[in-house]
Design a protein that fits this description.
homodimer; 191 residues; Arc Repressor Mutant, subunit A; 2 domains; DNA-binding
Amino acid sequence: MGRSRDELSPTEAVILGLLGFAELEGEQGMSGYDLLRAFARSPGMMWAPTKGHMYAILPRLVSQGWATSREVVQAKRPTKQLYRITRKGRNALRAWLAAPVEAGQERDMLLVKIFFGDLGDRDAILGHIARRREQAEALRKQIRVFQREAERAGDQDLYPWLTRRHALAWANFTVRWATEAEEAIRSSRGT
Amino acid sequence: MGRSRDELSPTEAVILGLLGFAELEGEQGMSGYDLLRAFARSPGMMWAPTKGHMYAILPRLVSQGWATSREVVQAKRPTKQLYRITRKGRNALRAWLAAPVEAGQERDMLLVKIFFGDLGDRDAILGHIARRREQAEALRKQIRVFQREAERAGDQDLYPWLTRRHALAWANFTVRWATEAEEAIRSSRGT
DNA sequence: CCTGTCATGTAAGAAGTTACATGATTCA
DNA sequence: TGAATCATGTAACTTCTTACATGACAGG
């Protein structure tokens, strides 16, 4: 009976969220490995916890009563632990989802690096901005593919769709901003 | 002679950056307190390190040779430490500014909460989005004020201007997105 | 007299990353 | 034969936050 907290860390919440989705879809449970893969496949709207963190959190979810685990021995594959969310876990998650999002702590290092541009190298900054633009262009393409796939699959889930919309809009915004910024820097020859 | 690293943590970098600006403006140095205030006055483009972190980092900057400190005894105020960036510090900062920005680790909890919307409460999510929209509206106003102040002061610094532009564009993007998202959720009565 | 400013720090802990460690199976 | 997949974990470490602790002076 480890000491108990009742609030979820972001990573705990996100893991419980995936377990919650698995439950909705009638799956028998997910392993740490499954979860890690699921994260890796959701670019643009979710980050991936590291392995170390994942395997540190899973037993804690169980000890808090937010999930249960079941050992599955396999013939040709290593033994794995399948995790399922519990009622208590769903409640904790619901509470976390309802808690206000603390504002304004997004720390985008690109912006920081631009801000201090006078102390650094102009070409390096142009490179950073170009890379950000390219990433946004790539994300944009990828999201469009996702969007089409989801449509073809008859996927009508409102909320995931909203996050795709956001990713797409963010990408468009970023490409536009980056393009302008690059121009502004280039046309400011000779401080 | 503590063990040495040669890379800066984000917070170390940002502190050195402010010390670098102070140097450019011919100031005699900044105290932890000064730095904390400076951070607090740059909303939308910079986050503020906490006090605890600030006072933990400053001596480390000195022990790494990135800054020097000088004790200033004051008559009517507590004694303070003034920090100045060194040549080595400027080099370390320049290297940090030139290092690529690692991509895609922005974890916006709002998006996460929306993504898992089906496991939570619809009205809570509407509330989150509304709050985000209001924050963006407030930021937009504030940045416009900043922008006008900078213009009036004849401020021609390209880079800080670019970050203001970004903040403004981001705020506009967010207001637009949030408005659409709110509508989309409201008009989707009855799953 | 009370609140805010000036000014610095410590201690404890949460959150997260990186590197290490293992080992069978499958596919090219 | 070598790389990728499946599968789980530990240990050490960095980063950052929160709460605690102190104390003089200024302004209303």
